[in-house]
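The protein record passed on for reference:
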Amino acid sequence: PWPHPMTLAKNRSDMAMHAQEFIDRTGYTYSILDGEDVICCVYIYPPDGPEHGDARVRSWLRASRAESDPPIRAALRAWLLGPDWPFETVSYAGGP
């Protein structure tokens, strides 16, 4: 299942990897918070091929917040295709 349980050490290592990807401009990871609780993580990576558009997007959302999936996906798609990013198309796993 995803997200899978992580030890504190594994989580730190994972966060360091994502921070380095951000610095290297090879990937971008964002968390969506509700107060101090992470309810969703979004991963933006270069496409694997032309069928994946300008960016490949993956995310996970807490099962307890499943009703938030459609509006979060719509907001993320609008943000990624808006003026803050250079993308014309994105491939978002699981659909729109």
